[in-house]
Amino acid sequence: MLKTGLELKQQQKLSPLQIQTIKLIQMPIQELEQKVRAELESNPVLDDEPAPESESTEPRDVSIDAIKEDGDIPAYRLKVNNWGKDPRPEYNTFSVQEGFTQSLQRQLGFRDLTPHQREVASFIIGSLDDDGYLRRDIDSIVDDLAFRANITTTPEEVEEMLKVIQDFEPAGVGARDLRECLLIQLRGMKQSPDVANAIRIIDECFQDFSNKHFQKICSRLGITEEQLKAAFGKIVKLNPSPGGQVNDSYADQSQQIVPDFILDEHDGVLDFTMPRFNVPEIRVNKKYADLLLDAKGSSERAQKEAAAFVKQKLDSAKWFVEALKQRQNTLSKTMRAILDYQHDYFLDGDESNLRPMVLKDIAEITGFDISTISRVVNSKFIETHFGIFPLKYFFSEGMENKEGEEVSTRELKKVLQECVDAEDKKKPLTDEQLVVEMAKRGYNVARRTIAKYRGQLGIPLARWRKEI
């Protein structure tokens, strides 16, 4: 029997201005400079040279916002000048180790992919957790690509691009769980009998491996205890948190960054500036507006065609300039909200004053969508009087201590690390004992939370920390 049915699926379409704005928002200041200069080269209507004095008194000025399809042309001049009066202020650049996301995006650039595939893969990279895992299901990523990025794809294509990313360094990145992470690393190693046994242990006996049921593993795989020991020697050298640790091959890789924000603190009052670096001011070149003015009412075909070309370029300029303005406004409102939310921390950089804060908190304050806040936070830096930090550093979840005060996960992880560092390595603390130690210090944390933070910090289980 044939079954027929009608499936309705709502899909949000983004306007050209929204798409342009989204792309500009997620760019750090250096990429923005390159984008503006590329736009200046491709659109002759835009100009970054100061207007001649004769133009400043020219009565034939018009605004591109007022250009109508019917040919009415009141206007002309426009420039983006919301960075301040100084056209080229000088700011320090900072050399920092290449970030995890930037490293993956760079490796993506070397792959032979279509522009569409590259967009899908780039979105997946942005969806990875800090430890390098992809903990979102494939269908959710497909939906987000459609609704947030206006990109239509399929689960099969997302899976295909995920496989591409799983081939990147550091090995294990893009895994969906620990088992897959370890297998990716083992399969990328030079193959040997010990590696082959290690793959079989993780692939076929992962539960017994997790529970350290050694005899069951030997019996099931038909290997000796010596072979098991040799295979374990390969496994313990693997990285369970590829995003949280960078291997030695990355030690000498660095990039020059320019802070997107400069913190200014004076007598407890916090403010900030947004350096322009080398982003030029852009305006409409007057001679192109004159073409429209001269063509108005003209019957000559050549002038009409010239006017149509200029009109197209003026429209493109309008979208770009408006997107730049919206980017500036979005970044400014977001940074203001972060400063206000983390006011006590930004006074002196004391981590104990860093409040729990998630993207939703800032989204509610600014009125922006969570995805917009995420784009602002990604790849943006702020220079403070106590160091330079990526904006995502200030975001973390939290819980209450025994006094009922809310503390950030960063503070909890710091205390947990201190507990492990102070333990007797001949009798390392189990997760249950770490719960007790944390409680002694005023932090009531569940055992499963200890296990989660321990994993994120790259701290092995107690039996793996034991020293002879």
If strands are numbered along the chain, what order do they take across the biggest sheet? 5-4-7-8
Please state the structural category. Answer: alpha+beta
- Tally of structural domains: 4
Alpha carbon gyration radius: 28 Å
Estimate percent helicity: 40-55%
Could you tell me the number of beta strands?
Answer: 10
Average predicted confidence as pLDDT: 77
Shape: globular
| Beta-strand residue percentage | 5-15%
Largest sheet: 4 strands, mixed
Ends distance: 70 Å
The number of helical segments is 21
Unreliable residue stretches: 1-11, 54-91, 245-254
Q: Could you characterize what this model shows?
A:
By secondary structure, the chain is α+β, with helices and mostly antiparallel strands. It starts with 15 loop residues before the first helix and ends with a helix. A hairpin with a 2-residue loop joins strand 7 and strand 8 (387-390). Mean pLDDT is 77; it is low at 1-11, 54-91 and 245-254. The strands form four sheets. Strands 5-4-7-8 form a four-stranded mixed beta sheet. The protein has helices at residues 16-25, 29-42, 53-56, 100-109, 115-126, 138-148, 155-165, 178-187, 193-204, 206-210, 214-221, 225-235, 286-295, 301-341, 343-348, 359-366, 370-377, 409-422, 431-440, 447-456, 462-465, and strands spanning 46-47, 94-97, 254-257, 261-266, 269-273, 283-284, 381-384, 387-390, 398-400, 406-408. It folds into four domains: 13-98 and 253-395, no CATH class; 99-168, Arc Repressor Mutant, subunit A; 169-251, no CATH class; 398-465, Arc Repressor Mutant, subunit A (Orthogonal Bundle).
